[in-house]
Fold this protein.
Amino acid sequence: MKRPIILFGGASYEHEISIVSAISLYRTLSCQSLFVFLSPNHHFYLINLIDMRAEHFASGRYRKNTKLFLTRGGFEKRGLIFRTQIDGDLVINMVHGADGEDGTIAALLDFYAIPYVGPRIEASVLSFNKLFTKFLAQSSGVKTLPFEKIRRGGAIKTPYPFIVKPLRLGSSIGIGVVKSEADLEYALDAAFEFDSEAIVEPFIANVSEYNLAGALANGKWLFSVIEEPQKKEMLDFDQKYLDFARDGKAREADISGDLAEKIKEEFKKVYNEGFEGALIRCDFFAIGGEVYLNEINPVPGSLANYLFNDYESALNSLIEHLPQGRRIDVTYRYIHSIRSQKGKL
Amino acid sequence: MKRPIILFGGASYEHEISIVSAISLYRTLSCQSLFVFLSPNHHFYLINLIDMRAEHFASGRYRKNTKLFLTRGGFEKRGLIFRTQIDGDLVINMVHGADGEDGTIAALLDFYAIPYVGPRIEASVLSFNKLFTKFLAQSSGVKTLPFEKIRRGGAIKTPYPFIVKPLRLGSSIGIGVVKSEADLEYALDAAFEFDSEAIVEPFIANVSEYNLAGALANGKWLFSVIEEPQKKEMLDFDQKYLDFARDGKAREADISGDLAEKIKEEFKKVYNEGFEGALIRCDFFAIGGEVYLNEINPVPGSLANYLFNDYESALNSLIEHLPQGRRIDVTYRYIHSIRSQKGKL
């Protein structure tokens, strides 16, 4: 069986969520994983299993751990003279938010030819930006709520109540419900603290929400159960944070087989080949029998382990069938042919 | 004055174009630049100025040059004991196609906190994928030709004549004009050799095409002249390749002031803050007085030096006002507060 390296942390507003998420996965997996922490300053550290506690990171004690460096095919330790590559056959990207979900980690791992579980660059950019998620849904024939993109000071046409979300953040950061003009200024301030653009959508009280995680491995769909997340009006950051520490199992939503099938069909449309290699969670609304995509989590909290009945075998199937990096043969045939034509260059 | 590191090469079908492009820039710039070559295997080499000839790369002799490694703030040489960072205050990304324009180089440079001229990750992904370019145009209020996305074996609704383009490549690779059914199979084979998806657009014979390069630096627009590129029916790869070696100046298109103004307005809409830090070239069509975006080149050939009357001062303005990397302060306040609530974690 392949040995994964769990990569977590990152220079992101969701840095702490990623730590909690990785700890939750650590408690779940029975296989021998390695844990690599990405500090807010973009240094990598190899974390001893005994130190996989939130305290170790919050206290800064991780800085005493062995520093690692990216190299072709993996991470290496550097001694005074020798460099040695650490074990581990692939990386599981558990960095939430910036770095992990904006395409940075994907690019690093692609560049250094390290196989990984996680979204590739393009899928990252599409799901990180709520406007592009709308585009992706539109071009895949998946419904979403109507929306408008706004900048600070711009007029809003959507009638109350509505939700304001910063364009590029996950985990409910900066998201606010605006029921009347009284809430508006605060919600806009909160959203524009994190991005120069925001998206406005109608707020539908008591809308049914369903989460489904899954992946495509070797042509087979690996689906979790469908969960109806418990919620107050909306999960705020603190609640979601606690939610990310989940290691109990989710309860399957009590819905018709038809609706469950529809949700899976919409998931498949969203998860096109762009998401190959990633285990993602899609959050849907169901309104009047129709299914709407709310958001795509390309690096879901705890990598959605709590949603699966048999998580390890799903994860292992995915690990066994990760995309191969592209290989481009450079032949220099243009330079050769032009040199022979022009006798120079 | 700041000293740039010109980064070129890359694991891309446009590897050779990038070499020619960098040589052209080398011949143009008077400032003391450094040249770093990215080999098809993703190794970096410091290239002596005397070796900035196509032959040096085609022959593989670059492998005898000093290897470089990415490190925080730049590139370093590694001796037996010491590591020394090379000079250079910023990178100019001249890697065309994959790596340079798909977000990989952007992510690497962002991650290692190296300032650079070039598109950031999001702008790269948007301009690399012709479908997303349509989305970007649409959401910015810029016209494009109608299109359809196809897969191998899918029906095509666009009437003849049309153009088939692979979804994700630049430099005319895999692009073909289909005038009748006789041309179809060859064009599809050519396109699908490079991508699993392609885009089909109506082909308009003798359409007026205009290229404009530019950047936004410190709130000021730096525009090139507008050129009407000479063409046969369409530039193929060989022609474009030669075109990338251009170091003569472009001739300004003979168009009305109104049309020139319109082209600049459309450029400004496309070049939103996502392109900050990049010097891009937009290719437009003019049809019946209206301007249509054809494509965005976020790393244009020869970095478009031949289009500018005073290239060095434009480039220097941009270099002086590159975007700062984001800094996120991680305070661990959630972990601290949850620990104090729960007394554990």
In short: The domain at 4-120 of chain B is CATH 3.40.50.20 (Rossmann fold). Chain B has a mean pLDDT of 90. The two ends of chain B are 52 Å apart (CA to CA). DSSP finds ten helices and 16 strands in chain B.
